[in-house]
Amino acid sequence: MSNSPQQSLVFPCGKVMKNRFMLAPMTNTQSHEDGTLSDHEYKWLTMRAKGGFGLTMTCASHVQANGKGFPGQLGIFSDKHMEGHQRLAAEIKAHDSLAVVQLHHAGMRSPENLIEGKPVSASNINKHNARGLSLEEIHQLREDFISAAIRAQQSGYDGVEVHGAHGYILSQFLSAEINSRTDDYGGSLENRARLLFEISNGIRQACGSGFLLGVRLSPERFGMKLQEVQTVCQRFIDEGQIDFLDISLWDSFKQPEEAAHQHKSLLKHFTDLDYKNVKLTVAGNIRTGNDVKKILEAQVDFVSIGRAAILHHDFPKRVLANPDFEPISTPVSESYLYHEGLSDSFVTYMKRWDGFVAE
Predict the structure, then answer these.
(1) Which of 128, 222, 223, 294 is the S-S candidate for 108 at Cβ 3.0 to 4.6 Å?
(2) pLDDT by 10s per residue, the chain, length 359
(3) Is the bond into 331 cis (omega within 30 degrees of 0)?
(4) Is residue 345 part of a domain?
């Protein structure tokens, strides 16, 4: 039986999502440099909650000061951030949208001009001028992820997502190409995944069974191997500690990069797993009402919308009203994007996307 976009979804923790649309966590460079929430970021996110998203996820929010990945990043590494998070969570929930923070540490991908000292990673990475964490620092990182989740819960969020994708620190540990450690956090896949599981299980223990908990993974790039990522997904499913897996595919309709796995689509490699009670969402190139329908028909529980949500704050409402809805074609004007709740800095950031903002 396929899922329809207007159906509600009950997560294992008991939280209910009113429809099948999630706002993908998106870098928007709109908050203050100390990590506190700005009015711009507040406006951008709450407009999407008003626009009908059943789950509104923040941008990647760093759990340590030295894990900052981009300018104007919303932080959650200190209690000074909680006032903004309380305000944000309350307003998202006021529109019957689940409020979720994405917990993040950029690791070797932290730009040196944004942090003190060298970037850190699983191992020394000369290309990024990054140094490997000591065992003590790994344990501190784990505790800081868990503390950030507790902060999110105390701020009123419904849940958190642990960012284990896109070459950030947890996928640096997962990657056999990047991680050359010889202790309990390196070598075998079990060791390379250890930190990810210690963090997610620690959050579940600290925040309780009623707190929404997701994990984001990406199966390609940054030394990720499709089969290893599937193995990690299956373990998450079997252990039953998380509510959902968020698989970032870059393009939900493409073939895998690895030749050995090209007998079926990248998406099918993940929908073929037996999810038991765990829910699945995917992100990547889901742009039209028809795309939403195709992904939900492929046994995905809910869709993560990025680009189309930038173009239309009310994308879910539009698709529910018209299943064939197609977003405005790009490039769009700066004034159009301001009207959709983007600030100057976010519009400037979007200019990096080829052909998105009109010259």
Answers:
(1) 128
(2) 678 999 999 999 999 999 999 999 999 999 999 999 999 999 999 999 999 999 999 999 999 999 999 999 999 999 999 999 999 999 999 999 999 999 999 999 999 999 999 999 999 999 999 999 999 999 999 999 999 999 999 999 999 999 999 999 999 999 999 999 999 999 999 999 999 999 999 999 999 999 999 999 999 999 999 999 999 999 999 999 999 999 999 999 999 999 999 999 999 999 999 999 999 999 999 999 999 999 999 999 999 999 999 999 999 999 999 999 999 999 999 999 999 999 999 999 999 999 999 99
(3) yes
(4) no
The DSSP string of 20-57 is SEEEPP-----S-TTSPPPHHHHHHHHHHHHTT-SEEE
> For residues 285 and 137, what is the distance between their CA atoms, to the nearest angstrom?
37
Asked if residue 43 lies in contact with residue 56, where contact means CB atoms within 8 angstroms, the answer is no
CA–CA separation, 106 vs 14, rounded Å? 31
Check if the beta carbon of residue 63 is closer than 8 Å to that of residue 120: no
188 within some domain: yes
Q: How far is CA 282 from the centre of its chain?
A: 10
pTM value is 0.98
Q: Is 151 within the bounds of a domain?
A: yes
H/E element, 187: none
Rounded Cα–Cα distance for residues 138 and 305 (Å): 32
Does the residue 354 lie in any domain? Answer: no
Which residues pair with residue 280 across a beta bridge? 245
Q: How many CA atoms lie within 13 A of 85 on its CB side?
A: 32
By CB neighbour count within 10 A (0-12 exposed, 13-18 middle, 19+ buried), where does 304 fall? buried
- CATH code for the domain in which residue 113 is found: 3.20.20.70
User: Helix, strand or coil for residue 183?
Assistant: coil
User: Tokens at residue 47, please?
Assistant: 């407009």
Determine the Cα–Cα distance for residues 256 and 268; give it in Å rounded to an integer: 10
| Residue span of the structural domain in which 306 resides | 9-327
Structure tokens given for 272: 């073929």
| CB distance 57 to 343 below 8 Å | no
Question: β-strand 98-104 against 244-248: which pairing, if any?
Answer: unpaired
**β-bridge mates for residue 61, sequence order:** 103
Our count of domains for the chain comes to 1
